[in-house]
Amino acid sequence: MSDLLPTVNIQKLMLATINNPSNAVEWTLAEILNQPQSMQRVIEELNIVVGSNRLVQESDLARLNYVKACIKEAFCLYPISPFNVPQVSVSSTIISEKYFIPKGSVVLLSRLGLDRNPRVWEKPMKFKPKRYLKKNNGEVVLNDSELRLLSFSIGRRGCLGVKLGSTITTMLLARLHDGFTWRLPPNSPRNDLIESWKSDLFCALPLLAQAKPRVAETIYP
Q1: What is the spatial distance between Cα 6 and Cα 8, in angstroms, rounded to a whole number?
Q2: CA–CA separation, 129 vs 76, rounded Å?
Q3: What burial class does residue 44 get, using C-beta atoms within 10 Å of its C-beta: 0-12 exposed, 13-18 middle, 19+ buried?
Q4: Which residues, other chains included, contact 127 with Cβ-Cβ below 8 Å and sequence gap of 6+?
Q5: Pair type for strands 180-183 and 87-88
Q6: Which among 155, 152, 167 has a CA at the least distance from the CA of 62?
Q7: Is the pLDDT of residue 16 over 60?
Q8: pLDDT band at residue 47 using 50, 70 and 90 as cut-offs
Q9: What mean pLDDT do residues 197-214 have?
Q10: How many C-alpha atoms does 178 have within 13 Å on its Cβ side?
C-alpha cells in the first residue's frame, strides 16, 4: 500500500495543475454572470487595454487588473482542494504563541479555513474582486505574499508554476470575454453556486451560459 502513495500524490499534483485554471475560470464566469456589474467592468477593462481590433495577448495581462482580481477571488472562494499539500516540520516550533508543533509533525493547512476566514476577509463568502485592487493601479498578482490565501503558497515549498499558472488562467478568462459576449440563458435568473460534495470543490451543477461572437469574424484564429 505504501508503494502506491507516491504515485497517488503525483497524480493529484498533475490533476491540480490541469484543473486549477479551468476550475477557477468556471467559478469566475458563474459568479460574474450572476453579477452584471462585474461582467460590465471586465468588458470595460478589455475595451481599454485591448480594444476591438485584435484579441488579447500575453503582453496585455499585466494591465488586466480587474480580470486578475476576479480570478484571485475565485481562487480564494473556490480552491481546487480543501487542504494544501502536506508539509513536515523540520524543527519544533510554536505558532502564534499558542500552538506547539513538534519536529516531524505532518502539517495540513486548511485552505477553506484560511480563504473563508472572516477574521482575515470582510464578507469572505461574497464575490468581491475589488478587494484585491491596489492603489495607483498597482499590478494584481494571483499569489499572496501575506499568505491570506493559499493559491500557490510561497517560499521554498511554494508552487514552481506560479508564472505559468497565472498566465494560463488569466489568458483563458480574458480570451473568453474578449472574444465572446456572455449572458444567462432565457428563464435562468442565475447560476446556482453549489460545490461538489466530493473531495474536490468543482461546481456541482453545470454552468449555465450563452455566448455570441463579440469581435469581427476575421479576428478569430
Answers
A1: 5
A2: 10
A3: exposed
A4: 31, 32, 34, 35, 38, 73, 77
A5: unpaired
A6: 167
A7: no
A8: very high
A9: 83
A10: 26
Indicate the helix (H) or strand (E) that contains 16.
helix 4-34
- Cβ-in-10-Å burial (0-12, 13-18, 19+) of 194 comes to exposed
CB proximity list for 186: less than 8 A, separation 6 or greater: none
Q: Convert the pLDDT of each residue in 137-170 to its tens digit.
A: 789 988 887 878 878 766 666 777 788 888 999 9
CA gyration radius, the chain? 19
Q: Letter for the amino acid at 112?
A: L
C-alpha cell at 77: 472562494
Backbone angles phi, psi at 183, to 5 degrees: -155, 165
CA 72/CA 129 separation, integer angstroms: 7
All three cell numbers of 207, joined, read: 454552468
Is residue 159 within 8 A of residue 142, CB to CB? The reply is no
Strand partners, 87: 107
Q: What is the pTM of this model?
A: 0.84
User: What pLDDT score does 65 carry?
Assistant: 96
DSSP annotation string for 28-42 = HHHHHHH-HHHHHHH
CA distance 134 to 187: 37
As a whole number, mean pLDDT of residues 19-36 equals 89
- Specify the residue for cell string 475589488: 130
The amino acid occupying position 109 is L
Phi, psi (deg, nearest 5) at residue 203 = -65, 130
CA 22, CA 202: separation in Å to the nearest integer? Answer: 10
Reading the block at residue 135, the C-alpha cell is 492603489
